[in-house]
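Narrative of activities, Objective 1.

The group set out to show that a structural description can be obtained from nothing but a protein's sequence at a throughput compatible with the screening campaign. Below is one input-output pair from the validation batch, recorded exactly as produced.
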Amino acid sequence: MDLSDIFHAIRANRIRITSHAQKEAQADGLTLEQIYTSVIRGEMIKEYPDDRPYPSCLILGFTVAGQAVHSVWAYNSENRFAVLITVYRPDPNLWENFRERKK
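Output recorded for this entry:
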């Protein structure tokens, strides 16, 4: 999966947001603008190539205010749509540098 595909889909408004992602964003007080900004300013920290129906990845990004955001995106290469599966503010007690789960 290429992160630029997700960037282009966001910029072209070819996005689907799951109801789960909507609930999680609302619970963490994240706006779509904050989520999109975090992706554009983010990095892929984990890939899930075997996810179905499309491969997905975990992206770590930051809002303009510097707050960490994790989002899981899938990408449908046939119609070039990105799917926001879930999004949340990572708990610093559970994540090392927001990149790896603490053991």
